[in-house]
Amino acid sequence: MSLWRGIVPLAPRLSFSKAVILRYRLYLEDRHLAAGTINVRLAAVRRVAYEAADSGLLSPDLAAGIRRVKGAKKLGCQLGNWLTAEEARTLWHLQTDRAG
After folding, report:
1. pLDDT in tens, the chain (100 residues)
2. Under DSSP, is residue 33 helix (H, G, I), strand (E, B) or coil?
3. Where in the sequence is the domain holding 14, given as residue range(s)?
């Protein structure tokens, strides 16, 4: 939540709304955080909105708007080839046969 405090001084009277969450996402992107990090933090904010709406602290429409805030796009590609379970077992057995 310490990063959330980076937004609050900008506009201390802002309510918990979609616009504030969008501003928070831009703040995180400006800090050059990884897309995965940004998305995890936004997921936590979405969850708070869901729980607040569920307990009657936030209108369902407002919570739905917050949940629709898109996360950061993950750019790039996966590196390497991943082994299947069977390939990993075979590799493991090859290594233990050589060591033994």
Report:
1. 555 565 555 555 567 889 999 999 999 999 999 899 999 999 999 999 999 999 999 999 999 999 999 998 887 766 777 888 898 889 888 877 776 6
2. coil
3. 4-74
